[in-house]
Amino acid sequence: MLILECPYCGVACDETELSAGGEAHLKRFGPDSSEEDFEGYLFVRENPKGVHFERWRHSYGCGKWFHAARCTMTLEVFGTYSAQTFEPPKELSDKISAKRPGWSWRDFA
What we know:
This is Sarcosine oxidase subunit delta. The protein has helices spanning 35-43, 90-99, and strands spanning 3-5, 12-14, 19-23, 51-57, 65-71, 77-82.
C-alpha cells in the first residue's frame, strides 16, 4: 500500500484517502500557443521506470493538492511538498540523489 504524508495537514494517509492527479510540474501553455504545444500538454507524459513526480489530492482529508516524489518500481516514497512550487525542493532532490546516484528527470537533476 502506498502511504503519503499530506504536507498541509501532516496526516500520513494511504492511497485510498487520496486521488491521483497525474504527472507534476507540467508546463501549461496560454491561448496563443501552437497546436503542437497544446497537444503535447494534453497527451505527452513522462512514464519513467524509477523516480517520478506526481500530483495527489487529499480527497478524504483537507482536500488540497500536493506533489509527491516516489519510485515507480519499488513504490518508495521520497517525500511530499506543496503543489504551489515550480520544481521539487532542493532537500528532496538531494535525498533522491543520495539513494539513487545518477538519477535524472527533466531539468530537476
